[in-house]
Write a structure and sequence with these properties.
arsenate reductase (glutathione/glutaredoxin); EC 1.20.4.1; Arsenate_reductase; Arsenate_reductase-like; alpha+beta; Glutaredoxin; arsenate reductase (glutaredoxin) activity; elongated; four-stranded mixed β-sheet
Length: 147
């Protein structure tokens, strides 16, 4: 049983890449499809605190409810923003990953590597073709990714 949980949206490439990097270390996480089963208020508040981010940093800005509700105008309190995310889970940015080493909003997806308790087992290439992990399971340095 894995101690890794991912709040996942299978329609999101970043979320899919993150999930596959977790699996590339030999772990099968608990997958929460947060659009179908959004977190309760207390859970969402705890996730935000555990990530050490602001409530507004968790908001997705490129979805219809963000514009329609005018969430970018700065007139909402944190509690009101949380209420909006609970009413419209699509506003919750993803993927969020919890492990024994911490909780992170994994954007970009390779942020997950910082909190995985187990090393990668082999190479990993993101859906867009970017190589992240070499065949020995080591992270490819930024300056070598283009070669």
């Amino acid at each position: 049983m894995s101690n890794i949980t991912i709040y996942h949206n299978p329609a999101c490439g970043t979320s899919r890449n993150t999930l596959e990097m977790i699996r590339n270390c030999g772990e099968e996480p608990t997958v929460i499809y947060y659009l179908d089963a959004p977190p309760e208020r207390d859970e969402l508040v705890r996730l935000i605190a555990d990530m050490g981010i602001t409530v507004s940093a968790l908001l997705r800005t490129n979805v219809e409810p963000y514009e329609k509700l005018r969430l970018g105008e700065g007139t909402y309190t944190d509690d009101q923003l949380i209420d909006c995310m609970l009413q419209h889970p699509i506003l919750i940015n993803r993927p969020i990953v919890m492990t024994s080493l911490g909780t992170r909003l994994c954007r970009p997806s390779e942020v997950v590597l910082d909190i995985l308790p187990v090393s990668q087992k082999g190479s990993f290439t993101k859906e867009d073709g970017e190589k992240i992990i070499d065949k020995s399971g080591k992270r490819i340095p930024l300056n070598l990714k283009s070669s």
